[in-house]
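Section handout, structural biology tutorial.
Before the tutorial, make sure you can parse a SMILES string by hand: atoms, branches in parentheses, ring closures as digits. In the record below the ligand is zinc ion, and the chain has 348 residues. In the tutorial you will relate the predicted structure tokens back to the input. Do not try to memorize them.
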Amino acid sequence: MKKTDLKKYTDFIIDETTRLLNIDSPTGYTEEAAAWVKDEFERLGFKATYTNKGGVIVDLTGEDKENGLLLEAHTDTLGGMVATIKDNGRLQLTNLGGMNPNNAETENVRVVTRFDGIYEGTFQLNNASIHVNGEYDETKRTWENCEVVLDEDVKDKESTEKLGISVGDIVCFEPNVRVTKSGYIKSRFLDDKLSVGILLGLARYIKEKKVTPKRALYAHITVFEEVGHGGSGNVPKGCTEAISVDMGCVGEGLTCTEKQVSICAKDSGGPYSYRVVQGLVTAAKEIGADYAIDIYPHYGSDVEATLRSGVDLKHGLIGAGVYASHGYERSHRDGAENVLKLLIAYAL
Ligand SMILES: [Zn+2]
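Predicted structure of the complex:
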């Protein structure tokens, strides 16, 4: 396969990922993102349906209905929720998923009220002026000593409540999407919207190249991965195998780069199916995808949730290398292209 053949699809993946990244979707607040995903798969000519809990199942066609393959990617991200409206009118948050106050500090946020629209603010250390706060450097950032400073004229609890802001409101952190001329893509939430973009690219490839996958092929865009049950249940009939398409880890001690497709052999949930990993590595070699095999020390995936929900299938995990995961994440279009290549070789 010539690199130029895939360029069009990689461009599409980066465009679609960028669009999705700009739709706020912290875990528990994913309706708009899921609706966008459903529309995009339908626009490409595929049947897409909602699961009861708000995910999207896409039928990517295929022959062998008794030996189906399910690809799982998640559109939920990290975020926050209003835990307390403080006496100074500011908001103390609780995390949604593994959002970390250290790298969320100074980020712009949107507070989504239930009935009174959206308000902007900034997530700051309490008493955030360096010229005033003598303990600024030494203070460990926690959810308790950081707060949302609303960009509204509020000075006490009552004035904030008057805006319609309430405990339980969703707080969305600015995704900060950037695509560089050198091909890097950066955002807080590449995990796992880059993979959703890749599955859209795969769908477009199937349609335009008029490919019929050998096995029945489905995609499940899940919405509760960041809290561990995204992939539980909702496996289409006849599926014997599921692969999470999620971010590949990049960091010290690992071999993957942001330009490669990572094939995970083991994560916190234990080893992936030996047969699936073997098949993925073989397919990557055959098609010439630049890949790395790695072990992720602190990681769980949708497909492990699928297994734990009691479904009997073989499981695997692949993804584009993502650096600074759950922080300000970075990947590269070559990484996305290598995932697409591997999926073309393995799933079609
Ligand atoms: Zn993820």
